[in-house]
Each structure stands twice: as C-alpha cells, then as structure tokens.
C-alpha cells in the first residue's frame, strides 16, 4: 500500500490503463540512477521524482555555472557554484521532501562504476562524452541492467535503450569503434537549444518509467529528433545484440564481456582543451597578445582586421574595424582577403585563438603577403585581459 497522501499526489497517473495502483507501487519500490545532472539529466531527474520513483541516484562531479541555466532547469542562480548533484537533490527535495535522493559528487570511472551503479534497477546515461558512454554500456551489461541513453546537440537529439531484455543490443553493438575526439564538438563549441535537451531528457524518464512498471514493448529502436524536421521524430528499428560484440555478444553460450580499463585512451585520448590551445604564445612573428593588439588599434595606424568566426557568431559581438570573413572562405581563396597594400598589416581574430592560427597560416602561404598575425586567445582573451565589457558566450 501507499501513504494516504500519495493517492492524491499520484492519482492522475494511477487512473491510467496499464498503470494503476500496481504501477505506482512498482515506482515507489524502484531505484533509478541518473549519470549527469546537466541538460539531459535535469528534466529526467525532475520527472522521475515527480512520478514517485522511490530512490533516485544522481552522479555528477561538475559545479553549476551561469551558462548551464539556459537548459539545466533544476539549477538556479542561488545554486551557482554548488555541485550539480547537490543542486539537483535540493530541487527534488523542494518538490517532495519524502524522496530518497543519493547525490554523488564523484567522477564515474572503471574502478567505481560497478559499485556505484549496482544498487539501482535502471541506469540513465545523461552524459556528453564518448568514454563515459562506453563505460556505462559495459557496466550495464556486466550488471544485467537496462541503460537509457540520450544525446543532444544543436537542434537535434537521439534516444535509445540498451541492454534491454534478453537480446537487446548494447552501445558497442551500434558503435564498436569511437569517432576521433576532434570530431566531437561540445555544446560550448557547437551550441544547443535548451528545449531539445528537455525533450530528450523527458523521454529518457518516460522510457525508465515504462521499464519499471513493465509496460515496455522491449523492441530495440533508435529515436531521432530534429527540432527543425518535419516530422520532428523518426524511429529506426535496431537489430538484436551482435553475437560478435566484445561486450554483450555470446560465444559458446557464454557472455564475452570485455571491459575497457582506460576508456579515455580507447576513445582516442582526452578531448582537446581548445581554450588552452588558443592561449599558446607561439612565435612573436606570428602571434600577438590582446594587450599588444589593443595598443596597435589605439595608435590609429592602418590595419586589416579579419574575424574568422561564423557569421552567426560575428552578429553576437565583434571588434570595431573588424570585418567578418568565415574561416572556410579564407581557406578557399586566401589571396582574395589580403589588403592591396602589402605594407598594411593583417590581424586575425576568432573566438578562442585556434581558427585564427589556421587562417593566418593560409594567408601567409600567399606569395608576397605582408605582415600577418593572429590574436592569442581570441576574443575570449580580449574580454578577460583588455575589455571586461566585451561579451563572453
């Protein structure tokens, strides 16, 4: 039976066909762990708590930043600086003080994954990096637990339930080899519409609830979502698990699980830190600091300033006197973007100081090119070192 208050709290879902009192009791007895309390994790956590899941685990070692608030809806200005797991727990307890919430402010690794995830019935992958995705999939296989995985970027998202039932595929069945780290942009680099993470995160919660109340069809599929698509949803039917899969495949009737000890190296090493790379000083003949660049602008000499960011970013903010020529256009025809007077120096800026180096190299390759330098650290360094009123995004 349920506490008397819960009949009113959860009555709207208990009267549904296929749900009823048995479904609510299953939820109250269930335990679900959410790995990642960010754009995907926040809506998933919120709706799992609202639905009455008995125990919710939250694993995240990041802290709340102001850039998170656009999509990570459990965090607020009041929780800036807190661990995201703790912030999400506070939000759940404000909604329902009787919820049991385990906030774990730790990094999930191959050493602790089995111990941290074992107590829970269902695992939600709300992360944004390849090493953790492979780790979660392998761990779910080893523990025999379903893994509800979501992903979102720009205007698009996807959802899949792995290791579900007796023959549901795992993540490695679909993606046996990871893509190169350089090809995996983060939300900071590529952008994300917050509503997209909300849609995918909510659907992760829905899949978890269906599994718990045993109202899932157990048919493996990959759901693709595009906010600009018509229709916005598309479902791809998946095959059963691959017998040859190193993680979940069967050979001679035995599970051939092969857990990768170093998932970061398996995925090609750590993701590049583009901000740090853009701050490398390099040669004085090729790069200039933001403060030195400011002095040149203030001197009033004739200069050619090229901003190589995409035009959509140039429209957000730009330096006076600069003109926008996206990097792809520079690389296509560098000779078209140099001043007619080779005595006029050219200075290249970008967001972080990486694309500007590529553009400057292309311009210097043109025969007869004059002085070409790029700004160390780009516009982010300009904002931090020269003009604190210049927008950061």
UniProtKB/TrEMBL annotation:
Residues annotated as catalytic? 187, 350
What is the protein name for this chain? Needs CLA4 to survive protein 3
Q: Does the keyword Cytoplasm apply?
A: yes
What PROSITE patterns does the entry give? Answer: RHODANESE_3
Transmembrane intervals: none
Cofactor binding comment, as recorded: Binds 1 zinc ion per subunit.
Q: What is the top-level taxon of the source organism? A: Eukaryota
Native source species = Laccaria amethystina LaAM-08-1
GO CC annotation, single = cytosol
Q: Which Pfam families match?
A: Rhodanese, ThiF
InterPro entries documented for this protein: MOCS3/Uba4 (IPR028885), Rhodanese-like_dom (IPR001763), Rhodanese-like_dom_sf (IPR036873), ThiF/MoeB/HesA (IPR045886), ThiF_NAD_FAD-bd (IPR000594), Ubiquitin-activating_enz (IPR035985)
């Amino acid at each position: 039976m349920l506490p008397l208050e819960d009949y009113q709290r959860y009555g709207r879902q208990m009267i549904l066909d296929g749900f009823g009192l048995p479904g609510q009791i299953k939820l109250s007895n269930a335990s679900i762990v959410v790995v990642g309390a960010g754009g995907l994790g926040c809506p998933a956590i919120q709706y799992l708590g609202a639905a009455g899941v008995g125990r919710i685990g939250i694993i995240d070692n990041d802290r709340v930043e102001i850039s998170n608030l656009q999509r990570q809806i459990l965090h607020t200005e009041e929780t800036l600086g807190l661990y995201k797991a703790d912030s999400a727990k506070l939000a759940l307890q404000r909604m329902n003080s009787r919820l049991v919430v385990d906030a774990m402010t730790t990094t999930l690794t191959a050493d602790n994954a089995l111990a941290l995830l074992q107590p829970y019935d269902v695992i939600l992958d709300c992360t944004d990096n390849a090493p953790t995705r492979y780790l979660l999939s392998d761990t779910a296989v080893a523990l025999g637990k379903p893994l509800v995985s979501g992903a979102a970027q720009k205007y698009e998202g996807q959802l899949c339930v792995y290791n579900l039932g007796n023959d549901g595929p795992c993540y490695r069945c679909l993606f046996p080899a990871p893509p190169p780290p350089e090809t995996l942009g983060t939300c900071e680099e590529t952008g994300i519409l917050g509503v997209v993470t909300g849609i995918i995160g909510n659907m992760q919660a829905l899949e978890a609830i269906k599994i718990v109340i045993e109202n899932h069809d157990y048919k493996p599929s990959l759901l693709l979502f595009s906010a600009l698509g018509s229709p916005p949803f598309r479902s791809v039917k998946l095959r059963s698990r691959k017998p040859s899969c190193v993680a979940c495949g069967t050979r001679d009737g035995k599970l051939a699980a092969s857990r990768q000890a170093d998932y970061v190296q398996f995925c090609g090493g750590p993701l590049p830190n583009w901000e740090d790379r853009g701050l490398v000083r390099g040669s004085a003949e090729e790069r200039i600091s933001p403060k030195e660049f400011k002095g040149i602008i203030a001197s009033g000499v004739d200069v050619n300033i090229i901003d190589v960011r995409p035009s959509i970013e140039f429209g957000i903010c730009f330096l006076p006197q600069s003109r926008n020529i996206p990097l792809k256009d520079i690389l296509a025809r560098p000779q078209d973007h140099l001043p007619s007077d080779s005595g006029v120096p050219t200075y290249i800026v970008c967001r972080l100081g990486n694309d500007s180096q590529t553009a400057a190299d292309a311009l210097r390759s043109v025969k007869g090119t004059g002085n070409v330098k790029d700004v160390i650290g780009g516009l982010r360094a300009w904002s931090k070192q020269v003009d604190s009123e210049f927008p950061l995004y």
